[in-house]
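Sequence dictates fold. Next comes a concrete instance:
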Amino acid sequence: MPGEPQADCLFCKIVSGDVPATIVRETDTTVAFRDINPQAPTHVLVIPKAHYQDAASLAAGAPELCADILREAGAVAADDKVDGTGYRIVFNTGSGAGQTVWHAHAHVLGGRGFNWPPG
């Protein structure tokens, strides 16, 4: 059921504390932690504590959590001091877009230049 923790979800296990992560921020609704395979000097994942499969199901089921995630993404960028030089927020939705963990999450990337279009 959307919003409910899933026993087989890596990110739900991080939220519950069953799997360790380098947590950089936490609110009542979100957790932000360093990516274990960083693609930039700043690479932090911001996730909702509630389980939603992807960004589309999160937006449909709990739009207020989308705002929480974006607010925390900005706070992560400020904490890592990349807010002045620019940063990217990425939601991968679906395996064709590179989503590998089926729990909605935003990647906050900064600290280096990024090309457009991404790819």
